[in-house]
């Protein structure tokens, strides 16, 4: 019997990944009249954002969720599609729960006094000063680049102080932002990330900072709106298994056939690139960069209540926990109308590894115990409870972003970070210079990759005017060969 050949899709640009980076790249190219197809392995768009409408009628964000006032690209994208935001709930006093059971309430950004605070503030101010020297567009041009990249964050912290309480505060800060342990992450990457956000406070605080606002219809709302505008250009459930570059263009092998294009944008986490076979193989610098860029370890757990009971007691529902609880940070994640109360608990790093190994009942009991410590005894009995353990997700395998281990930037950054490889261009929040690791960084990376592609296509058109190269068609269609 004659074997039927695989169906072929021909387009000018193929985008791999329908998170914010891939969707933005596709939108930019489509707006410019460039025929584009988006290939997404999972059955949804949004990447590392994911909202869910629970049976209670409350929408929760399982992934990235916040937007700040200086995240201009994400805000502009949301405004284009009419996606509304509302301020993060923070009414009342915040709480610290220490390893010895001490509970400290405070108003404002941080306690005025407390264990380890003077040393913590001194070291974070030093981080800000050092971050001010970072070149976010060409990081390897930063003074003391190799020195900083040769140390872990923990090594730097311990060289600066022996105050264990300050070290606990610094460790939780690293866990909360990078979903990693201080021993795992390059000091330079910490400095680069601070610089990309515009300062340490921007990463940590709520009002006017990274955690300022949330999306009314969920953080994947703008992504869903972009996908709707792109229509059938977005193909879901189409994992890319192999990519071959040749003189005529790029051929992508998927479970549903072949896609042929002039250029491709890979808008997936660095760790996901491992799952694609490349011909020719990727350069050593790119492979080395991927090897030094593990995904963070985090779970988000939402507990939904009939009402935000903690506010009646003068609590904001925002807490940091330094003890043996699996939970490190708690936020009030209630919906905009405030009719239900929602607490979200974050489990990070090594604590996530231990907690995820427990059975479901034990995981739930340990998280609810932490919520009781943070918000009071009523937290023990939610109407709804849901977990999202990001390292267990098939296509992302972690969250919310990759971080860089010591030596990764110096060894592989210059050629491996986002340098195009032939006809392949790289997008994703990890490739952003501004708000690296955030949704805004994903959007800007998609814009940058689209601009690279458009420039390359224009240069080719000038160099070789006339019909498109064999096998590459100027308008999209499908055919069976």
Automatic annotation (TrEMBL):
Amine oxidase domain: residues covered: 21-453
InterPro entries to which the protein is assigned, alphabetical: Amino_oxidase, FAD/NAD-bd_sf, Flavin_amine_oxidase, Flavin_MAO
Name of a matching Pfam family: Amino_oxidase
Listed SUPFAM superfamilies: FAD-linked reductases, C-terminal domain (SSF54373), FAD/NAD(P)-binding domain (SSF51905)
Cofactor names: FAD
This protein's record includes keyword Oxidoreductase: yes
Keywords: Oxidoreductase
PANTHER family, sorted: AMINE OXIDASE (PTHR43563), AMINE OXIDASE [FLAVIN-CONTAINING] B (PTHR43563:SF1)
Family recorded in the similarity comment: Belongs to the flavin monoamine oxidase family.
Name of the featured protein: Flavin monoamine oxidase family protein
Source organism per UniProt: Streptacidiphilus cavernicola
